[in-house]
Structure formats: structure tokens, C-alpha cells
Amino acid sequence: MLLEKGQLVAIPTETVYGLAGNALDPMAVAAIFETKKRPSFDPLIIHVASIDEAATYCSGFPEPLRKLASVFWPGPLTLLLPKTSKIPDLVTSGLDRVAIRVPSHPQTLALLQSLKFPLAAPSANPFGYISPTTPEHVNAQLGGFIPMILDGGPCKVGLESTIVGMEGDDVIVYRLGGLEIDAIESIVGKVKLQDHSSSNPQAPGLLESHYAPAKPFILGDLNKLIPLYASQGKSFGVLSFQHFSSEVPIENQIRLCQGGDLKEAAANLFAAMRRLDSMNIEFILAELAPDYGLGKAINDRLKRASANRG
Ligand code: TXA
Ligand code: MG
Asked: Counting CB atoms within 10 angstroms of each CB, which of 45, 46, 219, 231 has the fewest?
């Protein structure tokens, strides 16, 4: 089949769709970077079927991370573990840790169980753009460049995995994501958050401008922003958590959830950003979600979407 021949296939996961290739085949891995137009300093996550399989690609498995794996895999958690030489350096961009996760999606889990190699898979979007949460999103941008998209329906979580590793005895969260910090802390105690951006970040997906729509994306208090721009006669769309404005045409507004449910908001976020990006409007106004639970990861993505692109 395609993956065994070194070709790429888009795969569904519970977080976002991935652009998958044989992680042990440097040519397949190079094709992933090429197809995504991803800089080679930004390493890839490998996907495996089980904790035992993950352990075969690492030279150690610190106890706190093993505990997290046993509770949250399969699920939206990626662990940074010391790699063995089985993993090509291109996968990790030369870093000595490899990012590994067991995704929770029945089709992809079955696929991983049937393969003799792990799948390297970044989100199936051009570098820097919004991650895809439906097969249609993948098709819209990468359809012409890959031989197959495995249709697993819309992603249930809708935000990328939470990335966790250790430095000394500390458990560090490098990327906020679909697994909440509170859930992680309930297993391993207090963690440190190290998700600030820099030009040489530990997890380069944390470049400040990322997950970004093409249209200008302005984040703030909608009660002030909407009247301000409406009075200037501008055409804009609104991405809100719950806010609804009578000053904006209804078709230009997307509310992420009805009753304040953060899970629902997370699952809707990227599709909503894409829909607004495709509308005939000049820019997008948005507001933050409440800053707890999944709201923290939603807000992280909203802030990156609004970061200045130079
Ligand atoms: O939910 C997800 O994690 C999705 C699905 C497809 O699994 N994948 C995903 O991959 O979001 P990607 O490549 O878009 O983001 C992976 C992030 C990047 O920010 C990358 O820098 C970081 O993981 N990463 C990968 N390997 C790493 C490593 N060895 N050390 C530090 N960061 C790493
Ligand atoms: Mg990505």
C-alpha cells in the first residue's frame, strides 16, 4: 500500500488531520517537509499504536511521562522522549528527543496496528496556516499533492495535542492543546508551562505567528471593536465565544459554542477560522474564551492567529 511504498496519506486523528509518512524512511519524511513547505528545523511527531511500541523508539521513559502515557494514551498528548538511532535525525531536526503519541481515532489506530513502522505526521496544512479538522480542509489545500486522504469525519477534539516533556525532575508543557493542564497535574503534580515563542523555540510550532488565517485577525473586546469598525463602514467577520451583535450581518458572525461549553468551542475553532477566512470580508474580529481548562489552549491559538506577521 501507499505508506509502505514511501508515499504520503492524510490521516484522521481526534485532534487534527495529519500528513503521514513512514517515520523510519528518510525519503518519506523529506516528502512531508516538502509537501507542507515546512522548514526543516521544525521536527515531526511520530504516531504509534501503543506505549510498548513507543518504548521501542526511546532510550528511556521517565516515570512521570510513563504515568501520563498510561492514563491518557490513546489521546491528545504528545511526549518528548530521548530517541534511539532508529528514528532518522530528519524527524527530530537533529534534537535528541523524539515527540511521540498514540492517537485516539479508530481508523488510524487500526492502521497503526497493521503497519510495521510508526507514522510521522504533522498537521496536514501548509506551514503556518490553520490546522485541518475535516477531510475537506485537507483536500482544499493539499488535495492536489497527496495520493490519498483517509476520511475519518470531523475531528472530535479540534485542537492539536498537548506537548509534554521533562527537564531534570520538572514536567514541562511545551504546547497547550487538547489535553488540559489540570488533567496532567492530577497525575504528576504541578507542571511548568514553557510555551513562550522565540526564534529558536523548543517546540517550533510555537513560533509566535502560527495557526493563522490569511486575513488580518484582530483580537479584543468585541463590545468596543464592533462599533468602532462598523462606524467606519468596514466589512468584517466576527468570531466570538458567545457574544452576538445586532450590528453585524448574521452570516458574518460565528459563535464557537451555545452554552459556554469549551469542548464544543475547541472542536469548532479551526473550521470557524477557515470559514471566516474564505468570506468576502476585509478582516476578522475575535474575542478570547474564558482562561481556564481548554479555554487556555483556545486562547493560545487565537493569540497566535492574531500575532503580527512580518
Ligand atoms: O495533535 C497533534 O499533535 C497533530 C496530530 C496530527 O497528531 N500533529 C501536530 O503536528 O500538531 P505539528 O507538526 O503540526 O506540530 C508538532 C509540534 C511542532 O510545534 C514541533 O515543533 C513540536 O511538535 N515537536 C516535534 N518534535 C519535537 C521535538 N523532538 N522536540 C520539541 N518539539 C517537537
Ligand atoms: Mg501544525
From this structure: 231
CA distance 35 to 17: 15
Element (H, E) at 22: strand 18-22
Q: Residue 93 burial (CB < 10 Å; 0-12/13-18/19+)?
A: middle
Q: b/e map of 210-241 (b: 16 or more CB within 10 Å)? A: bbbbebebebeebeebbeebeeeeeebbbbbb
Domain assignments of the chain as residue spans, ordered by start: 3-158, 217-306
Q: Could you identify the atom of ligand 1 that is nearest to the CA of residue 202? A: 31
Q: What is the pLDDT of residues 107-146, one digit of tens each?
A: 999 999 999 999 999 999 999 899 999 999 999 999 999 9
**Third-level CATH fold of 3-158:** DHBP synthase (3.90.870)
Is CATH 3.40.50.11030 what the domain over 217-306 is classified as, yes or no? yes
- Per-residue pLDDT tens for 160-216? 999 999 999 999 999 999 999 999 999 999 999 997 544 344 555 555 567 788 999
Q: Does the fold of domain 217-306 match that of domain 3-158?
A: no
Ligand 1 is surrounded, with C-beta below 6 A, by 13, 15-16, 18, 42-45, 78, 80, 92, 95, 97-99, 103, 121-123, 160-161, 163, 202-206
Residue 252 is classified by DSSP as G
**Strand ranges (E), 60-213:** 77-82, 97-101, 119-120, 148-149, 162-167, 170-175, 192-193
Strands 162-167 and 170-175 come out as antiparallel
